[in-house]
């Protein structure tokens, strides 16, 4: 597996990585001050920084997480209605007119709840680059922590006076660092930053081999490598090594914990989904997601076995923090008044439409506000009780008053209003 280690992440992820790198370095400096009060050693400081970094970044992404959970809660209310619409038209996929009707009815459902099909995607689209940027920090800590970078740079300065290029190129190949992507590199020359990129992947064995390769600067290598190893040392394990480096030992706990914690998180997510889905209906997409929830933890466990222990600690810490964090967010979401949330959503939607120059009194806006209690009235089904929200079923009326004649239901259903729009 090839990994590209850059001195600093560039491109689209660059700004995010810079901000997170600044946070990581700030936490490191804080811990360094605390360590300095008790000892001159910095044993395990990187591991503690990684854990604190995980907690802080999770807290910073709280607004996005809450927004995503709100949409999930809203989806659990909307999905039964959307599923009924899909079922009603499932045998009419080749009928263009029927498909337009289906889209119109689905849009009316989204409108009455004041949301949209893409509302849940936006938080995820924002969170994905943030997560990738977070991983890049963990993969290239020296690039964002000057104190650690200086230790690597001192070694780089030492070997730059040696015939180093062939050996370091070989190490780069062995460690899967793609030197062809290094910028500002002339033939036969690595910059200090390039050497640091390669050495960032060094474990204890590579440091020993490097000192043996360049005996004239072995003292410089050993002194700085000792400090680097101490910073990355926890219970005698070097975080720069992979768990497989230690074989069947306590280091195996990292991939095992990665599997167990992510399985637990997946089961909690699935239980929450089933509780929210009052009809207990599962479509193919939900089943596929449930399968991935069981597969991904084992993939993560395998990757934690292959990657440095430091990366595994970040994954485990991230999962544990997410479980605890999710518990409190779910409690907060469960206590929210869904009728009030839906009303606020609709008001925000109407304001956005007004800014866009869409008249609030047009037919589609009015359709979104009217009673849409009987989604399957197209098939002449009996009227049934609303799932959750009064605002979703009747503007200005409580959702507990559900008794309506079949004829009136047909007249005021989404399909009925869709036909009215068609005639206009």
Describe this structure in a few short sentences.
This protein is mostly helical and 424 residues long. It has 18 helices and 2 strands. Among the domains are: 243-336; 344-423, no CATH class.
Notes on the structure:
The chain has 424 residues and is an all-alpha fold. Among the domains are: 243-336; 344-423, no CATH class. Helix content is 65%, strand content 1%. It has helices at 14-36, 45-60, 62-88, 96-112, 121-139, 146-159, 165-174, 192-199, 204-213, 218-231, 253-276, 284-306, 309-334, 338-355, 363-369, 390-393, 406-412, 414-423, and strands spanning 233-234, 237-238. Helix 3 runs antiparallel to helix 4, helix 3 crosses helix 5 and helix 9 packs antiparallel against helix 10 (218-231).
Q: What's the β-strand tally? A: 2
Gyration radius, in Å: 29 Å
Cα shape: elongated
* Main sheet: strand order: 1-2
What low-confidence regions span 5 or more consecutive residues with pLDDT below 50?
1-6, 278-282, 359-424
Mean pLDDT: 76
Number of helices: 18
Main β sheet profile:
2 strands, antiparallel
Provide the helix percentage.
55-70%
Helix-and-strand structural type: mainly alpha
> What fraction of residues sit in β-strands?
under 5%
Order of helices and strands: HHHHHHHHHHEEHHHHHHHH
């Amino acid at each position: 597996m090839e990994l590209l280690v850059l001195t600093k992440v560039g491109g689209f992820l660059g700004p995010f990585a810079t901000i997170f790198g600044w946070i990581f370095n700030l936490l490191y400096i804080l811990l360094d001050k605390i360590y300095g009060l008790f000892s001159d050693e910095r044993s395990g400081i990187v591991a503690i920084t990684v854990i604190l970094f995980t907690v802080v970044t999770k807290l910073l992404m709280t607004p996005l997480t809450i927004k995503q959970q709100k949409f999930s809660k809203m989806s659990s209310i909307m999905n039964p209605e959307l599923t009924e619409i899909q079922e009603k038209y499932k045998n009419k996929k080749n009928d263009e007119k029927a498909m337009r009707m289906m889209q119109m009815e689905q849009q009316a459902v989204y409108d009455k709840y004041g949301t949209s099909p893409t509302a849940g995607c936006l938080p995820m689209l924002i969170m994905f680059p943030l997560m990738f940027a977070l991983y890049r920090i963990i993969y290239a800590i020296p690039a964002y922590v000057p104190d650690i970078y200086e230790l690597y740079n001192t070694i780089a300065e030492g070997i730059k006076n040696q015939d180093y290029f062939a050996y370091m190129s070989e190490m780069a190949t062995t460690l899967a660092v793609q030197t062809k992507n290094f910028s500002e590199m002339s033939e036969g020359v690595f910059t200090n930053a390039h050497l640091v990129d390669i050495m960032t992947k060094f474990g204890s064995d590579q440091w020993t081999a490097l000192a043996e390769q360049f005996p004239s600067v072995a003292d410089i290598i050993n002194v700085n490598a000792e400090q680097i190893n101490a910073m990355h040392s926890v219970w005698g394990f070097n975080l720069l090594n992979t768990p497989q480096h230690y074989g069947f030992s306590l280091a195996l706990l990292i991939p095992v914990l990665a599997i167990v914690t992510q399985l637990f998180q997946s089961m909690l997510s699935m239980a929450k989904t089933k509780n929210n889905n009052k009809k207990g209906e599962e479509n193919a997409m939900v089943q596929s997601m449930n399968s991935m929830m069981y597969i991904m933890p084992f993939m993560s466990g395998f990757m934690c076995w292959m990657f440095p222990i430091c990366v595994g600690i970040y994954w485990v810490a991230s999962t544990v923090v997410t479980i605890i964090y999710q518990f409190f967010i779910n409690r907060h979401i469960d206590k929210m008044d869904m009728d009030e949330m839906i009303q606020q959503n609709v008001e925000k939607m109407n304001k956005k439409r007004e800014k866009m120059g869409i008249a609030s009194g047009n037919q589609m806006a009015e359709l979104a506000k009217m009673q849409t209690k009987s989604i399957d009235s197209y098939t002449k089904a009996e009227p049934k009780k609303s799932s959750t929200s009064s605002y979703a079923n009747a503007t200005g009326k409580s959702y507990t008053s559900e008794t309506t004649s079949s004829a009136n239901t047909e007249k005021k259903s989404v399909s009925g209003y869709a036909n009215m729009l068609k005639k206009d």
